[in-house]
Amino acid sequence: MMWVVSKITDFKLFSAFDPVSQALSDFELTDYAFSNLRPQPSVDERIVLVNFGHIGRAEIAQQISIISKYKPRVIGIDSYFNCEGGLRDTINCPQLLDTLSNLLLSDAIKEAGNVVLVSKLLQKSATAKRDSIDVYDSLEYSDPMFDQYSSHAFANLVTNASYQEDVKQCRSFIPRWKIGDKYENAFAVELARKYDSTKTAKLFARGNEEELVNYRGNVELTDVRLKALQGKDIGTTNFRLMFYAVDMDQVMREDFAPELFKDKIVLVGFLGNQFGDPAWEDKYFTPLNKKVAGRANPDMFGVVVHANIVAMILNEDYVGELAEWSKYAIAIILGMLTVALFIVVDEKLPIWYDALSVLIQVVQILLISGLVVYCFASYTVKLDLGIALAVMALVGPCYDILKPLQNIIESRLTKKKAQV
Question: Of 154, 378, 397, 417, which has the fewest CB atoms closer than 10 Å, so is most exposed?
Fold first, then answer.
């Protein structure tokens, strides 16, 4: 029902509707099930997150070396180590001056031997000029001194943002993308493949170019030393602990259980300057957000989005979707049934037709909306019935418009007994 309201207000016939349209533009019925109707998830102990804040390359190298001592299965680094735009001079790329830090990081990646670095899907200039937004034909990697000792996979997520630094929403991801003659896996997919290639093969067997992310939980921790945040609820989701997480100073002090990293997937990325930091950097709106419409604050860091995707693959916990043809078939069937019901009401209770037709439409929209939420909450099946809702909303006005035309045609084609 809210989807219908959103689409109607998108016409902007009245400026008063503009705030309503903006508030509902990023809302889907399944968001309520995501954020409120699911049970609290158990902590997925196979995946551990490590925060690197804004520390330098030498400190990241130290983190990798410490983590590697505890024999994780794979280490994923959600960061680029390159000169943006390929400008390799000390003015545009000052990190080149810190030769020692670069060597330490390169050596740490080499010694670990199981590091996955992120790459980035890009467009060549000719492709970009054609306005082919969803076409990628090249990749950007970390510098060779780092990339040669690691695997790589693209970190791009499907968002509604015009540029990376914009506030963005993430509902889905692309499992892999073909560049030239080779496929590049998504970052989370490559981590899952390193951990369990059989589960990843099942993902590819689904044959979907794009997969919905079945978000189960977040990582929202607060550093108890931050007095300004003590006693305050800064959580943006209802599911705050899906994965274990370690802050950067804890790693440096090795202040964690020795078995925490053993045979695990370790994701190193940005989780704020410290736990509890309400930073928006590399943060996304997701369906887990407590405010399902008119959202104010993004709720999930990018590295946690990747962790949710990894967990979904390993658990084979995918979101079921309707085939495209079935959406139109359901819309046609429901539209015809609604018309048939209107005809019966119009013939049997013509005096009450106007009131009953509106009531029927409202009840239909409420029932379908409830069915969408129930199916997702109970069976993780997304019933995209937006077309059906739109058809049923338009049946009433269309019937009223076409009814006089039907009467005119019938009067011309049907002769009264006295005229025969």
Answer: 417
